[in-house]
Amino acid sequence: MVIAASAEPVPPDANWLVLRVNDLREVRPAVKQFAQRIELAGMLLHADDPGPVWKEFKGGYRFVQAAGGAVTDEHGRLLAIHRLGRWDLPKGKVDKGEAIPAAAVREVREECGLRKVDLQAPLCDTWHTYERNGEQHLKRTDWFLMRASSHEELVAQAEEDIGDVRWLDAAGVKALKADTYPSLLSVVEAWEAAVHPRT
Predict the structure, then answer these.
(1) 158 φ, ψ (degrees, to nearest 5)
(2) Cα separation of 198 and 35, whole Å?
(3) Do the beta carbons of residue 53 and residue 21 sit within 8 Å?
(4) Residue-wise pLDDT tens digits, 93-147
(5) How many Å is the maximal CA-CA distance in the chain?
(6) What is the predicted pLDDT for the residue at 75?
(7) pTM for this one?
(8) CB proximity list for 179: less than 8 A, separation 6 or greater
């Protein structure tokens, strides 16, 4: 979903729901309609001033701040976890009073069993929505480039429903991209651009 000042970000042939917002009362019904239309690839809400549209959209959700890592080993492989039937990257909620970068490192350590994780730089952020216990959540995840050694034993955090942790080579990253969440694709692409830039 995109909230913008114009309809320009969407290619004309894309299967997106594009709505001009003239009244903020249109926002939540539009989001509900989009959620019911599984054939749509995305939704764009546009208005002269997108700020109030974003505020109205956020008002329908409980905000969750999370942090995670795109971790590279000495062979240029990406660390991935398999949780609830899909490939993912290690991430989790930021504890109250915890700095976002520290939370990202903590989550990687906890979910993958690593002791030494070096935070390199901010990578990107993602947003996604989900429902839990009848309540709608809007999660922002701040992602960081990190390094760790493949010489450390990987241990999946079973209590977080993680069934596997492994280092993925290029073929493994391609398989992850085919079996992951849409919001994670931009993180993997940012990692590829940072770690394996095309020349």
Answers:
(1) -60, -35
(2) 36
(3) yes
(4) 999 999 999 999 999 999 999 999 999 999 999 999 888 999 999 999 999 999 9
(5) 57
(6) 97
(7) 0.88
(8) 86, 87
Residue-wise pLDDT tens digits, 74-84: 999 999 999 99
The count of other CB atoms within 10 Å of the CB of residue 179 is: 11
The CATH number corresponding to 63-195 among 2.60.40.10, 3.90.79.10, 3.40.50.2020, 3.40.640.10 equals 3.90.79.10
Exposure string over 74-113, b if 16+ CB within 10 A, otherwise e: eeebbbbbbbeeebbbbbbebeeeeebbebbbbbbbbbbe
What is the model's pLDDT at position 181?
Answer: 87
Q: Where are the domains of the chain?
A: 2-58, 63-195
